Amino acid sequence: MIRQHYPKVVIAAAALALVLACTLANAKRPAAAATKTKVVEVAKLVGEPVAYDALEHHVGDEIAIETTFNTVRRGKLVKYTNPTLTIQLGPEHGSIELSVPRETIRSISVLPAAPARPEAGAKQEQGNRSAKKN
């Protein structure tokens, strides 16, 4: 009686192992890690690299800072001093001012100016879409 069930158990175990191996092989990376990698790559490709000392001429410009903590901060350069930079982060990060010590900065890029958007209150002309009345 034991010999009759043994081949079925072996086949079931092999099938389960095969399904598990296929599942693990097709597993994707977590989205957070992929997003962080893309942010770093985009920040490096878009901006113009600049030396720390040259930043005194870029106050008010949009910059991206890569730190030794493997983070990228993007914002408007508000204040430049020899020991620290102060940038204003965007509204998605609370529009706060962040001071970054010079020792923790790995690279700095000056980003191109964003194209001007029309004001929210201003109406844009759309043309006459109504039917002509007699």
Molecular structure report:
This protein is α+β, with helices and mostly antiparallel strands. It is 30% helix and 25% strand. It is built from 2 helices and 6 strands; from the N terminus they run ααββββββ. The protein has a 6-stranded antiparallel sheet, covered by helices on one side. A hairpin with a 4-residue loop joins strand 2 (62-67) and strand 3 (72-80). The radius of gyration is 28 Å and the shape is flat. The model has no long low-confidence stretch (mean pLDDT 75).
Strand order of the largest sheet: 1-6-2-3-4-5
Shape: flat
Number of strands: 6
Mean pLDDT: 75
Helix content class: 25-40%
Radius of gyration, whole Å: 28 Å
**What class would the helix/strand composition place it in?**
alpha+beta
Q: Helix segment count?
A: 2
Give the end-to-end Cα distance, rounded to a whole number of Å. Answer: 95 Å
In N-to-C order, the SSE pattern is HHEEEEEE
Walk me through the topology.
Elements: H1 2-25, H2 31-46, E1 48-49, E2 62-67, E3 72-80, E4 84-89, E5 97-101, E6 105-110
Antiparallel strand pairs: 1-6, 2-3, 2-6, 3-4, 4-5
In short:
It is built from 2 helices and 6 strands; from the N terminus they run H-H-E-E-E-E-E-E. The chain is an alpha+beta fold and 134 residues long. A hairpin with a 7-residue loop joins strand 4 (84-89) and strand 5 (97-101).
List keywords for this structure.
alpha+beta; 6-stranded antiparallel beta sheet; flat; 134 residues
